[in-house]
Amino acid sequence: EEVAAPAPATADPFSGDPPRHPGLRVNSQKPFNAEPPPELLAERFLTPNELFFTRNHLPVPAVDPESYQLRVEGPGGRELCLSLEELRTRFPKHEVTATLQCAGNRRAEMSRVRPVKGLEWDIGAISTARWGGARLRDVLLHAGFSEEREGEWHVCFEGLDTDVGGAPYGASIPYGKAVSAAGDVLLAYEMNGAELPRDHGFPLRAVVPGVVGARNVKWLRRVAVSPAESPSHWQRNDYKGFAPCVDWDTVDYSAAPAIQELPVQSAITHPRPGAVVPPGELTVKGYAWSGGGHGVVRVDVSLDGGRTWQVARLAGERQALGRAWAWTLWELQAPVAAAAAGGEELEIVCKAVDSSYNVQPDTVAPIWNLRGVLSNAWHRVRVSVRP
Amino acid sequence: EEVAAPAPATADPFSGDPPRHPGLRVNSQKPFNAEPPPELLAERFLTPNELFFTRNHLPVPAVDPESYQLRVEGPGGRELCLSLEELRTRFPKHEVTATLQCAGNRRAEMSRVRPVKGLEWDIGAISTARWGGARLRDVLLHAGFSEEREGEWHVCFEGLDTDVGGAPYGASIPYGKAVSAAGDVLLAYEMNGAELPRDHGFPLRAVVPGVVGARNVKWLRRVAVSPAESPSHWQRNDYKGFAPCVDWDTVDYSAAPAIQELPVQSAITHPRPGAVVPPGELTVKGYAWSGGGHGVVRVDVSLDGGRTWQVARLAGERQALGRAWAWTLWELQAPVAAAAAGGEELEIVCKAVDSSYNVQPDTVAPIWNLRGVLSNAWHRVRVSVRP
Ligand SMILES: [Mo]
Ligand SMILES: [Mo]
């Protein structure tokens, strides 16, 4: 039941990719990886679909929604195939507002410490949408699985996007996250009220709130429950964190857990680095988010490189305890200190606190890692004040 | 059904306190607050009962186990009273190995930045035990509550320890934590296989794994489900985190959430600050822990103040995903750099990473808060190398 139209081997495998918004900041064309411009990133709580950051590992599959089928492997090897129509009608539609963040968000700052391997994401490999779809939980229970499962199990996802050898993109999440009602994991067919755009997984993707983008598998073709994590490269040999002393000669991927929940994060979206700001009142804006459903309880902003701090005003509705899947936008208005008002540089810094009172590390070097993931040190923006 | 023997108003209310181990480092005699000596702190995975850190807010109540009754307020105002015998026999005994940490652990380091209000805990306001008791979940379901509850609810605890005006110690936890099977919350009557010592809540205490010590109410007399948090001083006007800019004139306790899950933490237990270590191979030991059931996935150790890092060896059994309630002891053997081997000072630093890849902040000042809680910056120990 391969429903993607296979491209002839001689053609550019990316020739079938969809058109994109010209405003996106492109980090890689093939595969397509792009982030919204920082000025627009946090202007709205919900990121417009055409500006939502795109992280593709492979060419975008062309899927015929009429013949599309999701394969769900039930207990005892029984197999279930679900059409889009069945996914829409047999299961209640569930909606969740969730932020997705790439493990490599803010990698550019890490590579300034020492080169790393990966796309040079600035602060925009993060976006927020209202997702709609069937609960993965409901589909698993329908397939015959139960809430409790002895031991450690995983739900493995496979995409319709494949490499030149035919191997699909894949990833897995813990069974407990997948089956719990509070986990809010979706098999999503809607994004901000529209059908999923092709770049975001048309016709069906996993949305795993609070968990790194890489596990939110797009163009989903198969869901299976397994005693082992997904065997995919991206689950086993990528998207893991290491100490700064680990290099490509010493890295042992089996020694670190696959990234699932992400740590607390924040960034300044306004002003931009190098900006010249007027003297007097300064407005600083940004986003903050934490994985695992931990809400953001406070954002501290410094205008003097981290010596003194002020508390930002948090915007947006209050999110449910333990299910705060969406980011928090924040803003601070503060007078620029007289000392800085003579054309001097101002170092603006932000740091967030989540509901477990976890905080961001002060500096990048001690969290540096060879793959440039988990870059969540204080965000620093230098501007100068117009004399 | 007040079962504590009230002391005459003229007597020293602390005269009934139990005898204590002379090896404890006492931070306050009345009420009694003490921590194990740092050398012994992480020598064993389970802290011996007599060395377990003690954090009392009030005199230790004298409770007659024969007449003791726990009052559980059921739905619709129905009241349930459970004797110790009933708690032991009507509900399956559940055992959990969990670390408890006081919100003020490592406060002494914070007060070196700027004075704070609170007991001067060193690194020992943390200990680990194997707890046994009835699941709070089972007792709540027995009382008539159900797993799902619309809206935000709290389980409020009251202790038999009371202030001079008769007001009990109290605290609350979210209903979801209390009722979930994976939350492992106990009404504990056993600690490391023995009955609870008087200092640790005899005959019954709440054990709320992954959650700050202050919610693990001792000498439990009452459990109630409420749409509001516990009205107690310690829930509403204490045990909350604030920005470094907030002082006693500006603090607004309603602006911050009550601490529940604690952030990732670690400390060096060996060598001790000021020690003179032999040249050659150095052994560094310590503990690491994170709240919310997040396991510790890595501990990095630096022998040069945080410039370079090595990965410590983690000891102890693997804990279940999302239910890693106990600390992780760790150890590193490493040669002392030649540069430091001439009687020079060595700054040893540790920092832990938890399963959400949250990390500790580099420095104390940016997380300083007026109450001196949540002190989890990198732990730094200066030693000198014997020439
Ligand atoms: Mo990613
Ligand atoms: Mo505490």
Q: Which two protein chains have the largest interface (Cβ within 8 Å of the partner's Cβ), and how many residues from each?
A: A-B, 44 and 44 residues
Number of strands of chain A: 22
Bound molecules: molybdenum atom
Q: Tell me the β content of chain A.
A: 25-35%
Secondary structural class of chain A = mainly beta
Radius of gyration of chain A, in Å, reads 21 Å
Distance between the termini of chain A: 67 Å
> How many separate helices of chain A?
6
The global form of chain A is globular
Low-confidence stretches of chain A: none
Main beta sheet of chain A: 5 strands, mixed
Strand order of the largest sheet of chain A: 5-4-13-8-9
Which oligomeric state applies?
Answer: homodimer
Percent range of helical residues of chain A: under 10%
Task: Compute the average pLDDT of chain A.
Answer: 95
Order of helices and strands of chain A: EEHEEEHEHEHEEHEEEEHEEEEEEEEE
